[in-house]
Amino acid sequence: ASSESLRGHGRTWRERFSLPAFGVLMVVVVLGFLYPFSMQPYLIGRLGQSGFIGMMVCLVPLLTIGASAVLLRTWPGWRQWVGVSVGLVSMPALFGVGLELGVSGWEFALAATVPTGYAISNTWVKKKLSHWSPAVLTASACGLASLILVPVGITREPMRFEEAATIDVAWAVGAVLILGIMGTGVATVIPR
Questions:
Q1: Whole-number pLDDT of residue 121
Q2: Which of 12, 33, 159, 190 would staple 145 via disulfide (CB 3.0–4.6 Å)?
């Protein structure tokens, strides 16, 4: 088929997968995949538990409003404001957990960079890659992140043969498939 027949949303496949598009995708992968993958385990190890870091995700909607205002020059409608306001009810609990754990100001700020990365990454997708189908975007971002993270993970945490023999591979693969298909996959392709 000619590139003309492969046009979608006014762009050819060559335009979609060009070097500039790859650069945009790389920004998304760094902010939305690589940085959280590195920073969250560091903070969990430093603080000794994962609950506080998991709760930081509640900041993503609020930070997305800021990212959208800067990158897209758009402001949320009243429904979005109501949704974010309801979500902010959990903020006192987040700060309370942080105080209880003795989280310092700089650790809290560092933890806030993860949801900030998610917010910027999501907004960047809307600004620069909205012409990509959700399935292609998800597969491309996850694939690129895997190409970078798997070798890093293998070299940083080499697994001894005895450890590998004790892992229930079927359970591990099943968990990844369920999380990938039911979480990211289905959520990505649900009509907006």
A1: 92
A2: 33
